[in-house]
Backbone:
């Protein structure tokens, strides 16, 4: 009896030893035959925000494969998980720096990105984020750039579009008051709505993305007589709002931002609910992004969202700027950063899936035309 | 005391000294490795969070281990400390104070703020016992987080401005320090490893000296038998309150150290999961065992990072490792095996030593 328990313990200990031995194997550096450009990526591949992190990881993988298949300068691409947490993101960044990362494509979500970009600013590592949209990500940091619009900019765009094309509508807003993305857009929207004279009749907040019942918010918009509901939120709560509005026989025009992208891929979602919903999205997988979408679907078995497209564009932007500014793969991250920053903010332009002739300002913001699309026959139709 | 010319330490003293030794050894080794450049960036970047978590382990041990009440809202106190610390630090930065002064004042402010919140919460909470108390602390942890979600703080030449919406009119050159759910995004990283080390030692000193005092013995007497303790005239509320508030203050210290180590910190970081993580530290280290909690805080902070090779499966491996450790440490035959090993190594030592470590 006693012997057998002892055996169990020994087996367990041995198993642990093996696990760690395996771990040791994995971390061993492979000798480099020729210099490769090392691009690191950080984003949540586990946890609640994993959808976005995985999309970025996979979208970038496709770009890297295309570039490496062409020959010439090769890219070594490493992606670390940050679970949408600033502390873990900094750890992931340090891990990538241990692995001699030269350029950073990341991080995917805003709050971790602010923490990481403070580090890259100090270490002088060139950083291009596909999707961290808070203005604080780039504020005061000359080395950090965004591929996406900032949140307030999206709010502004939405207000402008509504006042130009849907004038006379009374607008109700339903947003997530505990979410930086949502409150950021609402701030921009509010400011611009006052400027263009939009009639906003209700601002209704809900406390978290786990909220299941939106009756209060929907009824408030109904009672205020809103015939357009602005939804600057992610697609999960938005899908609930759409179905609960229908249950209440409330059929205003719905207008969302890029957070709604992905709603058509949601499981068990009645696609007819999304018909006629407007959204701001930089990427349309049914028209301009068809090739990429097909490739992505063949490889990963799902439709790419705008995060994947942003990441794809990021890799190409980094790669092109790296080569055109005359950097070589044996340079240190700081030297590369010094060369790339002036080039990136200078004449550099790139055309990709999410925009044509994208250029970057010194404050890190991208300039590209926002696209408003409407959902028709379960696909985005350009307007 | 001395026995047969040999120094014999009481179990209390032995545990106390072990705790200091663990901390000094850990930070000593890490600091020297860092100085010689051997330490990877990945590990050296985690040292300050580890120090903060060690303080949290000490702090929670005071409530769970010593006072015997399960608290599931300790991350709340940590967040109060963290955000108070950040506001103080940035305010002082504008006034032109040097970083060390900013850190010290921020730490004190964070500790005091967390202590006050702890006191206010303790008034209703300590009327409850057992599961009910645990549930209410959980609720308070969430309440604190949700309040922080609507706190907006701006700073300009006229000083600090507080509001519950983002509509704060700031003078030219002013900036928002706290932005509700975004948290603090303009923070400066001023925590240093030395400050972290000192704070851990201070926390140990406060906690262990309190334990080994009249107050500490009274708290433990109440934990072991409330009725007997009341019958000899100990004020249950008073002593439980002392344990709770001291614990909250230490959590505030940890929060400041943690908060001032990151340039961005959102309230969502201090959710229920964080509270449970800290509870896992002390359960794994042995409830009531201060140095055990300190060690496991260090190990469990490093572990998920050390398991990055497993990529998406690392949290799975992390859980498996936790379960194995729990099984192994609670396994009788391993216990006998270890004490047998210890007996062989130290040979002809008296047997009492093993029991004392379980205190």
Residues:
């Amino acid at each position: 009896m006693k012997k057998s328990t002892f055996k169990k313990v020994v087996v367990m200990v041995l198993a642990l030893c093996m696990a760690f031995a395996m771990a040791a194997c994995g971390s061993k550096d492979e000798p480099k035959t020729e210099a490769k450009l090392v691009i690191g990526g950080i984003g949540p591949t586990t946890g609640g925000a994993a959808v976005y992190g995985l999309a970025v990881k996979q979208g970038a993988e496709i770009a890297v494969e295309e570039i490496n298949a062409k020959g010439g300068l090769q890219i070594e691409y490493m992606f670390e998980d940050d679970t949408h947490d600033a502390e873990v993101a900094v750890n992931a960044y340090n891990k990538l720096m241990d692995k001699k990362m030269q350029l950073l494509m990341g991080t995917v979500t805003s709050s971790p990105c602010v923490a990481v970009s403070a580090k890259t600013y100090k270490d002088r590592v060139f950083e291009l984020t596909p999707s961290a949209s808070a203005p604080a990500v780039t504020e005061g940091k000359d080395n950090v750039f965004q591929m996406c619009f900032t949140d307030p900019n999206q709010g502004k765009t939405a207000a402008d579009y509504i006042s130009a094309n849907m004038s006379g509508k009374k607008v109700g807003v339903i947003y997530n008051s505990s979410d930086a993305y949502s409150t950021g857009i609402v701030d921009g929207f509010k400011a611009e709505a006052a400027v263009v004279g939009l009639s906003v009749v209700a601002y209704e907040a809900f406390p978290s993305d786990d909220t299941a019942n939106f009756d209060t918010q929907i009824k408030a918009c109904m009672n205020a007589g809103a015939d357009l509901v602005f939804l600057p939120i992610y697609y999960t709560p938005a899908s609930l709002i759409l179905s609960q509005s229908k249950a209440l026989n409330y059929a205003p025009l719905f207008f969302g931002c890029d957070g709604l992208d992905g709603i058509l891929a949601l499981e068990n979602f009645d696609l007819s609910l999304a018909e006629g919903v407007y959204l701001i999205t930089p990427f349309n997988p049914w028209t301009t992004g068809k090739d990429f979408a097909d490739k992505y679907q063949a490889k990963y078995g799902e439709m790419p969202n705008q995060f994947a497209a942003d990441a794809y564009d990021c890799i190409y932007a980094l790669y092109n700027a790296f080569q055109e500014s005359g950097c070589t793969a044996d340079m240190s991250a700081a030297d590369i950063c010094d060369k790339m920053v002036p080039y990136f903010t200078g004449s550099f332009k790139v055309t990709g899936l999410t925009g044509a002739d994208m250029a970057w300002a010194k404050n890190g913001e991208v300039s590209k035309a926002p696209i408003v699309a409407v959902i028709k026959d379960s696909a985005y139709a350009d307007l | 005391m001395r026995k047969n010319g040999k120094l014999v330490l009481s179990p209390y003293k032995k545990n106390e000294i072990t705790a200091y030794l663990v901390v000094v050894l850990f930070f000593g080794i890490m600091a020297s490795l860092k100085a010689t450049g051997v330490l990877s960036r990945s590990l050296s970047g985690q040292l300050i969070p580890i120090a903060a978590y060690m303080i949290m382990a000490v702090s929670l041990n005071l409530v769970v281990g010593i006072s015997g009440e399960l608290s599931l809202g300790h991350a709340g106190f940590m967040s109060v400390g963290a955000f108070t610390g950040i506001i103080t630090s940035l305010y002082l930065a504008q006034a032109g104070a040097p970083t060390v002064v900013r850190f010290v004042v921020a730490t004190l402010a964070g500790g005091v703020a967390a202590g006050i919140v702890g006191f206010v919460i303790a008034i209703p909470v300590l009327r409850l016992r057992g599961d009910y108390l645990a549930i209410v602390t959980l609720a308070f942890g969430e309440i604190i987080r949700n309040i922080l979600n609507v706190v907006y703080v701006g700073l300009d030449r006229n000083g600090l401005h507080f509001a519950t919406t983002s509509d704060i009119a700031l003078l030219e050159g002013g900036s928002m320090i706290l932005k509700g759910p975004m948290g603090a995004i303009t923070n400066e990283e001023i925590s240093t490893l030395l400050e972290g080390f000192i704070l851990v030692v201070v926390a140990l000193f406060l906690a262990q000296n309190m334990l080994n005092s009249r107050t500490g013995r009274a708290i433990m007497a109440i934990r072991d038998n409330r009725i007997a303790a009341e019958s000899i005239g100990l004020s249950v509320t008073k002593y439980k309150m002392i344990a709770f508030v001291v614990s909250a203050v230490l959590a505030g210290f940890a929060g400041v150290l943690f908060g001032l180590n990151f340039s961005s910190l959102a309230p969502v970081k201090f959710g229920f999961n964080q509270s449970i993580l800290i509870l896992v530290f002390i359960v794994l280290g042995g409830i009531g065992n201060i140095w055990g909690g300190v060690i496991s805080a260090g190990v469990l902070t490093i572990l998920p990072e050390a398991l990055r090779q497993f990529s998406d499966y690392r949290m799975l491996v992390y859980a498996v490792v936790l379960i194995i450790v729990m099984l192994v440490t609670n396994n009788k035959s391993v216990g006998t095996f270890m004490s047998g090993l210890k007996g062989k190594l130290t040979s002809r030592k008296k047997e009492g030593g093993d029991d004392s470590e379980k205190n």
